[in-house]
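seq as requested:
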Amino acid sequence: MLKYIVRRLLLLIPILFGLSLFIIVFVHALPGDPCSSILGEHTSPDRLAACRHGLGLDKPLYQQYFDYMNGLIHGNFGISATNRVSVLDSFVARFPATVELSLAAMLVAIGIGVPLGVAAAKRQGSVFDNFATVASLIGISIPIFFLGLLLAYVFGVWLHWLPTLGRVNHRLYDFTGAGTNFLLWESLVINRNIPEFLDVVSHLILPAIALGTIPLAVVARITRSAVLEVLNEDYVRTARAKGLTNRRIDSRHVLRNAMLPIATIIGLQTGLLLGGAVLTETIFSWGGVGSWLFQAAVDKDFVVIQSGTLILATLFVLVNLTVDISYAYLNPRIRYS
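struct tokens:
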């Protein structure tokens, strides 16, 4: 197992190297640069040239890449061209918001998708199965920006049930003390303030539902397919012939053997969500990594785009590595040499 983990981590080096090369070529191929965003379109050529020289943008592309990689090797992820703040500091400050939103979205997806898929598989061909299939197709097809705006209008503007902007009502609560930016943890564990915690949860509901809709639909479909495949296995029929209860069969035989593809899709979806939910964070003014990278793309902030993408790619690979390692515990027949 240890050799497998080390080998997978070593494979991360060429992956990130190739990704960094692709990113720097891609972002520099885009029209404009940070200086155009900072100084505006009508600035003088002299000021534009001085800005580019100060940021090193007048150097050849290969030299910019070597300088960037040299800093990266020494733990320097660069400085934002627009606000002159460390990229790593900005990422660390915003990532907890994305983590909370992503985990809440996956909680929605798993909590509804897995039971829905299991129920649909056990009622194959029924009205419920057809309804679940159609609902999952709609969930995959509906655009997140449309669903997010619809949820915000119905539950925020029309019914006034839930807030639609931000992570907390800053007029009522102050989170400057602990500084972890994990607002759920701070409100419940550190501050021990239940009204504060409920306010944070109320702000989380709508973006979590909007972001979790597509993973929910995907998890439900994969769960249905995996459970159907297991239900047709001989050992399940043998368990029924022995007189075992349906609950025991489901827990010990069906779900455990169907968990491998389900765990795979959950890991992939979690990694994607941690990559930054740009549309959801923008609609609900969430202030996470997604909206941060979106603004960097608008400002042509090359360093933020490069470093932010590499950090997220590393997290994505680590999440998938964790899923692969979990296979050995979900299915004892799997062993890594």
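Residues 92-330 form a domain with the MetI-like fold fold (CATH 1.10.3720.10).
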